[in-house]
């Protein structure tokens, strides 16, 4: 379900060879001409046109040894085949592109190529760490080249990996994507991707009202610009949110609408909708319908050779068969689950699946016991089935308790962390009082007091505030300023500035009235930072968490405290 990554419509240096438009005889710059044409197809959702139209030009570029065009066209065609779920064609183009991409670490083709490799690892190898590695390469390259759309697309893809794994620890990536999407040159398509990423992040963190709000914005944007690509994804996420709210009938209608919008979309999106719809039916006590939806999704997985949801679907089928008393079906899918898990090497680097694999390995063991009992005596069949179901139920309970325990520990750690930081802010004045007693007659302390007055007056908000600028404001030199900070406060100049800026940022974030409607980018600007990345690093270094998580957890903690009172 990766967002399409448009080609960058700027050719590499030295690439100015003209290319005729075969339909009209118009001469255009080769690289830019192809990039613009590919972009047009992608935004229209016409990946098949990328393949049909660009393939002859790709082979012509090979014959002419036009490396730059080979890289762009080959990577774009491979990406299109990937979105059309043609694994063999993608593999063939990856092999053909290897000589052209060897040693390439920059440029539009690099971005498209590694995005495609990341998506390939996700779709066909269930290799989350491999996919993440390629996405991070593109993200780093796009940051260095200041290509904001590519950054947002990679952040969207990274959040999607967390969404598949049901892992809520993706807020920083989604928030960064949303912040970048406020850039005036970002297209509506990329803006929708950022809103979808925020929807998935808030959904995973169980902030369903916020998730619904971001999804509403994404839906409005897609309707406004007739962006049909996003319609099935929007309706699917709407179904996810409604399911979490236990509004099962409305959720089912949303999934049906998602399927109705999906005939021309990527097969992986359809598989995702079927899986989520099946999970709803299983939760709502409709195991037969869940089995039908899971079965259809598995069939599509096998047709496309996709592994994106394969493990989850097999696990769902085992659970459904267990609930309906289909012992042989449960065992068959359990065997396939273990085989696929071994083939895809799920135990390596995917710790979240260890409990699941252990659960179903135990399930297989219990089934073997039941099968042997059936072979010995038909009269023992009822007892064997009872043992089987009790074991499955016990394993499920243990698994849920483990997840709950882990979540509880994490919440407890976060709350303790915030409490510690809040106490540090509250006791700061008393620390300074003790410092007054120690340095009352010290010239460094006198200079430090003047510095404190300037900072409390808002000098820390100056973006170009340096040691020299502070010395100038105090009418002294940088050495005296530095010594005053070291001897009185025991802190470096930039640590001193950061402490004021982050203190002000936490004050704003902790106040729902002040933080309402203010973006993290605007907040960073208001407290004196030149860019949001520096703000994020300083905030996390000072508090241990991202600004978004700080705001959410502090406000939650306040509500909890007020509720107790």
Architecture overview:
The protein is globular, with a radius of gyration of 28 Å. The protein is an all-alpha fold and 565 residues long. Helices cover 76% and strands 1% of the residues. Among the domains are: 1-126; 325-410; 425-564, Homeodomain-like (Arc Repressor Mutant, subunit A), CATH 1.10.10. The protein has helices at 30-43, 47-64, 67-83, 87-101, 108-125, 128-144, 148-165, 171-180, 188-204, 208-224, 231-244, 248-260, 267-283, 287-304, 310-324, 327-343, 354-376, 381-426, 428-439, 443-456, 467-474, 478-489, 493-510, 512-515, 520-526, 532-543, 547-564; strands at residues 18-20, 27-29. The two termini are 46 Å apart.
Keywords, please?
Arc Repressor Mutant, subunit A; mainly alpha; two-stranded antiparallel sheet
Q: Which helices and strands appear, and what pairs or packs with what?
A:
Elements: E1 18-20, E2 27-29, H1 30-43, H2 47-64, H3 67-83, H4 87-101, H5 108-125, H6 128-144, H7 148-165, H8 171-180, H9 188-204, H10 208-224, H11 231-244, H12 248-260, H13 267-283, H14 287-304, H15 310-324, H16 327-343, H17 354-376, H18 381-426, H19 428-439, H20 443-456, H21 467-474, H22 478-489, H23 493-510, H24 512-515, H25 520-526, H26 532-543, H27 547-564
Antiparallel strand pairs: 1-2
Helix pairs in contact: 1-2, 1-3, 2-3, 3-4, 3-5, 4-5, 5-6, 5-7, 6-7, 7-8, 7-9, 8-9, 9-10, 9-11, 10-11, 11-12, 11-13, 12-13, 13-14, 13-15, 14-15, 15-16, 16-17, 17-18, 20-22, 21-22, 23-26, 23-27
């Amino acid at each position: 379900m990766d967002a399409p990554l448009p080609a960058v419509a700027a050719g590499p240096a030295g690439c100015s060879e003209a290319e005729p438009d075969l339909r009209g005889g118009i001469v255009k710059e080769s690289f830019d001409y192809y990039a613009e044409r590919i972009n047009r197809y992608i935004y229209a959702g016409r990946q098949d046109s990328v393949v049909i139209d660009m393939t002859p030009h790709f082979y012509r570029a090979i014959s002419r040894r036009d490396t730059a065009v080979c890289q762009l066209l080959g990577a774009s065609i491979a990406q299109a085949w990937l979105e059309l779920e043609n694994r063999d064609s993608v593999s063939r183009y990856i092999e053909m592109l290897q000589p052209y991409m060897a040693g390439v670490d920059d440029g539009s083709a690099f971005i498209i190529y590694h995005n495609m490799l990341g998506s390939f690892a996700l779709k066909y190898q269930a290799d989350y760490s491999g996919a993440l590695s390629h996405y991070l390469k593109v993200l780093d390259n796009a940051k260095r080249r200041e290509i904001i759309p590519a950054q947002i697309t990679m952040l969207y893809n990274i959040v999607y990996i967390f969404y598949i794994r049901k892992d809520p620890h993706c807020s920083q990536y989604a928030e960064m994507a949303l912040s970048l999407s406020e850039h005036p040159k970002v297209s509506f398509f990329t803006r929708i991707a950022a809103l979808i990423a925020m929807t998935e992040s808030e959904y995973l963190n169980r902030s369903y009202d916020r998730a619904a709000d971001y999804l509403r914005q994404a839906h409005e944007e897609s309707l406004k610009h007739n962006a049909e690509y996003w319609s099935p994804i929007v309706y699917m996420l709407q179904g996810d949110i409604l399911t979490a709210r236990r509004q099962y009938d409305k959720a089912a209608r949303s999934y049906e609408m998602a399927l109705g919008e999906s005939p021309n979309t990527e097969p992986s999106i359809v598989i995702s909708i079927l899986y989520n719809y099946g999970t709803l039916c299983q939760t709502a006590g409709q195991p037969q319908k869940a089995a039908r939806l899971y079965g259809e999704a598995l069939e599509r997985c096998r047709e496309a050779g996709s592994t994106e949801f394969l493990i989850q679907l097999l696990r769902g089928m085992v659970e459904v068969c267990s609930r309906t008393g289909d012992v042989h079906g449960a065992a068959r899918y359990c065997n396939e689950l273990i085989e696929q898990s071994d083939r895809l090497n799920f135990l390596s680097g995917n710790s979240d699946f260890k409990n699941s694999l252990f659960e179903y390995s135990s399930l297989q063991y219990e089934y073997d016991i039941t099968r042997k009992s059936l072979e010995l005596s038909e009269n023992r069949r009822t007892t064997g089935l009872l043992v089987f179901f009790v074991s499955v139920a016990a394993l499920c309970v243990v698994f849920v308790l483990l997840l709950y325990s882990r979540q509880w520990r994490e919440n407890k750690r976060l709350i303790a962390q915030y409490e510690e930081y809040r106490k540090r802010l509250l006791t700061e004045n008393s620390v300074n009082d003790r410092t007054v007693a120690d340095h009352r007659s010290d010239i460094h302390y006198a200079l430090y007091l003047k510095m404190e007055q300037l900072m409390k007056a808002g000098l820390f908000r100056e973006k170009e505030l340096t040691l020299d600028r502070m010395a100038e404001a105090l009418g002294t030199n940088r050495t005296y300023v530095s010594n005053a900070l070291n001897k009185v406060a025991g802190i470096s100049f930039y640590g001193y500035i950061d402490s004021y800026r982050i203190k002000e940022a936490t004050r704003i974030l902790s106040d729902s009235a002040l933080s309402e409607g203010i973006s993290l980018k605007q907040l960073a600007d208001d407290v004196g930072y030149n860019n949001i990345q520096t703000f994020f690093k300083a905030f996390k270094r000072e508090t241990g968490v991202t600004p978004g998580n700080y705001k959410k957890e502090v406000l939650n903690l306040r509500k909890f405290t007020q509720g107790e009172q």
